[in-house]
Amino acid sequence: MAEDLSITSGTKAEQYEALIPQINALLEGEPDLVANLANITAALKEQFRWLWVGFYIVKSGELVLGPFQGPVACTRIKRGRGVCGTSWAEAKTLVVPDVEKFPGHIACSSLSKSEIVVPVFKANEVIAILDVDSELLNHFDETDAKYLEMISAIAARSWNS
Ligand code: SME
Questions:
Q1: Residue 9 has what pLDDT?
Q2: Residue 4 has what pLDDT?
Q3: pLDDT more than 70, % of the chain
Q4: Given 1, 42, 66, 88, which residue has the most CB atoms within 10 angstroms?
Q5: What is the whole-number distance in angstroms between the Cα of residue 50 and the centre of ligand 1?
Q6: pTM metric for this prediction
Q7: Which residues line ligand 1 (CB under 6 A)?
């Protein structure tokens, strides 16, 4: 595979549509979880230039920071805590237009204004979450939810157990 990324312009949907085959190509034939999650976050960061994008992985009953791109972040999040822990507990995507209005939001960076969190499922269990933060209010919508859920399903294929 080619370790370079073609950055696309156009509508948000067009950008995701161009990115997803490239993510699939980056992961093809590579079984290593960290390598694959790292490349997914790098591809998303390069395309969209969000403040922060990364995975938290369920380990021993907590979310633990995994591969990410952006400023340093909190390492552990309990189930039901913050946007990430709530997405895990409710097993659903959460779009948060204004993080200050989300009860219990965990502010890893004071620059973050809006957020989307998408669960990663394996056999109907949440095994990780994909978290994206923006410096802009109201940055994420149903288009992001739809495509990030596709990318979460691609990520899930890298879990072998
Ligand atoms: N804001 C998240 C914490 C993770 S950071 O944004 C990277 C939350 O409330 O769960």
A1: 94
A2: 86
A3: 98
A4: 88
A5: 14
A6: 0.96
A7: 52, 73-74, 77, 82-85, 105-106, 108, 112, 115, 131, 133
* Reported confidence tier of residue 56, pLDDT bands at 50, 70, 90: very high
Is residue 1 included in any domain, yes or no? no
Cα 5 to ligand 1 centroid, rounded to whole Å: 27
Ligand 1 atom showing the smallest separation from residue 107 Cα: 1
Check: CB of residue 27 under 8 Å from CB of residue 36.
Answer: yes
Domain of residue 116, residue span: 12-156
Number of domains in the chain: 1
Residue nearest (by alpha carbon) to ligand 1 atom 1? 106
DSSP-assigned states of every residue in 27-84: HTT---HHHHHHHHHHHHHHHH--SEEEEEEEETTEEEEEEEESS---SEEETTSHHH
Q: 3-state DSSP helix/strand/coil percent for the chain, to nearest 5?
A: 35, 25, 40
Say which residue, 2 or 125, is predicted with more confidence.
Answer: 125
Between the CA of 89 and the centroid of ligand 1 the distance, in Å, is 14
What CATH code is carried by the domain that includes residue 85?
Answer: 3.30.450.40
Residue at 94 is within a domain: yes
